[in-house]
Fold each of these.
Amino acid sequence: MTLQMCEESAMAAIALQEVRRRSEQAASRVAAAAALKPLDPDIVSAALPAFFIGRNSAGLWVAREANGRVGGLFLFKSSAVDFANRQSAPAKCALVFPAEIFELDIENQGNPLVALGARLLAEMKRRLAQLFAR
């Protein structure tokens, strides 16, 4: 075996380890993701719509109404906040920023291109993991 072949094998092993480590981290983050529950009426009035704004496991911004009526995926935090404000117009809304990651568990009514990009990225990661597993 030549030195170049050894280097290439080592680089492939390192890349495979990194893909596995990131997959395990993503799985643990998803398992620890916040379970979004409706807010306690003592905290926010039921008459005032509330939105959770945070990131998902892919790093995209998620805006989701507290009762799960509407939600969307966005590239920017400001876009998620604007979505929440538009959905609650003409009234204002309460914004809740959970520290934990959470996934959009309803139909995406946000930016469709962001959701498509996230699916393509996940597929690329899956295929790379398969490629390095060979």
Amino acid sequence: MTDDRVTRLIEMLDDPEADVDETIDLADEIAASGDRGALPRLEAELDRAVADRNSYARELLGGVVAALGGTEKLPVLVRASAVDLGDDQDGLAAEIVDLVQADPKTAQRLLHPLTEDDDLSVANRADWALRFVP
């Protein structure tokens, strides 16, 4: 059951003693499950990771949200990415670029409105993502 795996993943992300490789393997397993029903909870946990300034959790959860939700989740990922947590965001940035390039038309439809967002960080991040439209 994916919900049990999501609960376990969240516990592992909250535990500084959790094994990193096991945590990543579980995130990959959830991402490969195809269970879109887990997205609302994963998105809520992604928001919490950003609010808690947990760049590690943001990176892992962002990858799972991208894998399960696809291009339609670009706004969620761009908003999460727009918050500077002091990390390089290589993984999350790569997820965003991959989604933009996989479905440029949908990416443009979803990201163009974000370039006008009241939060300048979100607007700038959306503009950055649109640069990868082929």
